[in-house]
Design brief:
- This protein has 16 helices and 27 strands.
- It has 541 residues and is of the alpha/beta class.
């Protein structure tokens, strides 16, 4: 027996129409570092329709790829809808990729048009001669432009001129929900970045699953600050979730440091936001160093991308701002788990919120041990985390990479355990776990405990060769300004907080931990610097 239900495709066009009609009065707010500009959802929808018409006039059609080289702003949101709703594919280009990686992803994806903010024209112009498929560049004004770099691009049209030439309204095509809507490349910490292509169906389902009651649910009364770069995994889905439910969407542009973000939160009376721990550390340090700021409008924050230090949770708790942790990957659209405490616990329970996250509906998760067997959900048994579901990739674009998949499941490369509440706790990355004397040391746990010290701004831990134990941890520490904290002090801090044999003997103090293009600690760089003798390592203990 078949159902009697209507067979309506799950598409971004459906989300777009809903937000444009039902939430037409909601606002998109863009920050320029000093002030903000606003447009209603109805106005943004009109411009997204004009953008689709302009792209058709430039010769683009179904399946063609449109790149964006942009910050988080209103025009980028217009592309988030205008491009996939016309049947083309949105390719968000990471502004922080190395030049050779940028060339690789544009050429492999086959971008025909690239929308570029004027503030980053130089980075794109530097590689434009190597981009084989690009026919047009569209300049989106967000400040002064390097005219020499602009000239190097060749065929350039201005975004506002394109839109002005189009009539309002759009006749959106019927789209197969399984067709490509957008694509994003991994951050490429090892080898070339790998492409992941999201479907209309996967994006639609991800938006609904992410915004559920077991999460930091967003509604029409919210003002959501979209800090996660829109070039990184669809900004964790926030633009689509916010548009769907009618929350005001606040775009910070390129102003992502502590001071301007605090200013933006105050100006806009922001209620929710999401970002990586390094962003939240900057915000918290600025607020602590400059008392008197009013962040009382903020009801919740989400942290993701790397493990959430307890010191951040504690710091924001003191401000009355509840912080949750989320987990996912480029390959998973990305959200798979969020650390909203279970019903039996207080919603402010610190222990639950510091876990990696509870599996959200639609995601299946398992822990696979070294022998290939599945570990029980007992909160103790560890192995590699594997996931599957309707918004999780089954391959990479033009790169099947069979070693990354296992019987239809994605191998995440994370090591962790799951308890009987369905909470995931990640102890390390498979490539980062330190194997000392045949036993594992969690670099993530060591980092979190170190960053709990009041004089530590950042801490990363990597494994280095050891003649006796095979491998031992090296702690790389960034002290707060004015601190004279030493290795002996930190060894004492770790005693009683981690297993004694985990405590590092090797320490180095630097000005800043190198970051990947999406703000994570770049341990590959740290290992290379240690191997080259570029770090001053002191022995203690």
């Amino acid at each position: 027996m078949l159902s009697t239900m209507q067979d309506v495709p799950l598409t971004i066009t459906s989300l777009f129409r809903h937000g444009a009609r039902v939430h037409r009065r909601s606002k998109v707010v863009t920050f320029d570092g000093a002030s903000t500009s606003e447009a209603t959802f109805a106005e943004v929808a009109d411009r997204a329709e004009r953008l689709a018409g302009a792209l058709r006039r430039l010769g683009l059609g179904a399946g063609d790829v449109v790149g964006t080289f942009m910050w988080n702003n209103q025009e980028h949101l217009e592309a988030y809808f205008g491009v996939p709703c016309m049947g083309a594919v949105l390719h968000t280009l990471n502004l922080r990729l190395f030049p050779e990686q940028l060339v690789h992803v544009v050429n492999q994806a086959g971008d025909k048009v690239i929308l570029v903010n004027s503030s980053v024209v130089g980075a794109l112009a530097a590689v434009s001669a190597q981009l084989r498929t690009v026919e047009h560049y569209v300049l989106v004004d967000d400040g002064p432009v390097d005219e020499q770099a602009l000239g190097a691009l060749g065929s350039v049209v201005r975004y506002e001129d394109l839109l002005a030439a189009e009539a309002p309204g759009a006749d959106w095509p019927d789209i197969d929900e399984r067709s490509a809507a957008a694509m994003c490349y991994t951050s490429g910490t090892t080898g070339d970045p790998k492409g992941v292509v999201y479907s209309h169906r996967s994006t639609f389902l991800h938006a609904f699953a992410y915004n559920n009651a077991s999460n930091l649910t967003i509604g029409e009364r919210d003002r959501a600050v979209v800090i996660v770069p829109m070039f990184h995994v669809n900004a964790w889905g926030w633009p689509y979730v916010g548009w769907m439910c009618g929350s005001d969407l606040v775009m910070p542009g390129r102003f992502l440091q502590g001071e301007p973000l605090v200013k933006l939160f105050e100006m806009t009376k922001a209620t929710v936001s999401a970002g990586v721990p390094t962003i939240w550390s900057e915000v918290l340090r600025y607020v602590e160093a400059n008392p008197g700021h009013d962040l009382s409008s903020l009801r919740g924050l989400v942290s993701g991308g790397s493990a959430l230090p307890g010191s951040l949770v504690d710091g924001f708790d003191k401000l009355g701002i509840r912080m949750l942790q989320g987990w996912g990957m480029t390959e998973t659209s990305p959200v798979c788990a969020v650390s909203e405490p279970p019903g039996e616990a207080d919603t402010w329970d610190r222990g639950w919120r510091l876990r990696t996250g509870r599996v959200i509906p639609g995601v299946e998760m398992r822990i696979v041990k070294d022998d290939g067997s599945e570990a029980p959900w007992d909160g103790k048994s560890t192995g590699e985390v594997e996931v599957r579901g309707p918004w999780i990739t089954g391959s990479y674009y033009m790169d099947p990479a069979p070693e990354k998949f296992h019987d239809g499941w994605l191998r995440t490369g994370d090591i962790g355990s799951i308890d009987d509440h369905g909470f995931l706790s990640i102890s390390d990355r498979l490539k980062d776990v330190i194997k000392s004397g045949g036993e594992w040391i969690s670099s993530v746990e060591l980092e979190n405990v170190l960053m709990g010290h009041p004089e530590v701004a950042e801490a990363a831990v990597v494994g280095v060769p050891d003649d006796k134990w095979g491998e031992r941890p090296l702690a790389v520490v960034v002290r707060n300004d004015g601190s004279s904290l030493g290795a002996a002090d930190l060894r004492s801090w770790l005693e009683g907080r981690v297993a004694k044999w985990w405590i590092p003997e090797r320490w180095t103090f630097i000005d800043a931990v190198p970051k990947t293009s999406v703000g994570k600690f770049d341990k590959k760089v740290l290992r290379a610097r240690e191997s080259a003798g570029d770090l001053v390592v002191e022995q203690a203990g």
